[in-house]
Amino acid sequence: MVASLSTSGYQSMKKREMQDTLHGFAGPGKAVFFLIAVFMIQCFGTSSAHAMLSIKANHEDITIDFFYHGSAVGFSGEADEGTDLVIKIASPEGHQVMKKKGKVGGLLWMTVGTLKFEQTPNVYLIHSTQALDDILSTEEQQKYVIGYSALRKRAEISPASDEAEKARWLNEFVMFQEQQKLYAFSAGKIIATSIGNGRQRYSIMTDWPYQAAPGEYMVTIYAVKGKRVLDLAATKISVEQAGLVKTLSTMAKGRAALYGILSIGVALAAGFGVGMLFRKGGGSH
Length: 285
Known about the structure:
alpha+beta, 2 domains
């Protein structure tokens, strides 16, 4: 019974049990005893409930150095047997900008404006044991912002004259993010194995997109049954620059003039080197 309850439901049940146990006690000591009991439920009952679902990354720190070209990240943990699982990897919701292309004079494709997207994560990866619509209701998807439909409903775009134009540009935005490997969906890649006592162990290995910017990313797992979220747990992935990459990035932001001169020098040196490499000796061809 406890295994099928969410954290809040579990605590409510335990409080009712404690109240039944205290029934019949009288006197001033009853109130004090009750407060102590509630405190113990908050301290120990919550930990027990959260232990029902867990998630852990095989490494929580990704370093971007000179040879970095993406990474592979694995997630594993335990959950109640008989529940489906959804893993969401997302950056904080924020501000995205895209250039709007169009024909000028009916001939040339050029930038004709800027589209601004609000409340949209730059990275949004969803993995589930089954197709999302088969295991989670529309209301739950929107509540926990799981799936493209929920993401589109939450996002804001400007300028957009009507809902049709908003939907069009949001679709273009999602397609662009998918091409960059920053948005992705998968169903069936999570491997779950029974370990007895009504429990299962799950795991998934996924590619981390090298286009993902430095920062912290939230990884949340949802235990789902009856098209509802029963419980959730979360961890974080940190992406940081290191070495020469960090030095150049810091220089570009804090000392732009020096960075520009250095970039020109490197380009000239590279061009000179290529010229020397392919230069042919002697007069005639």
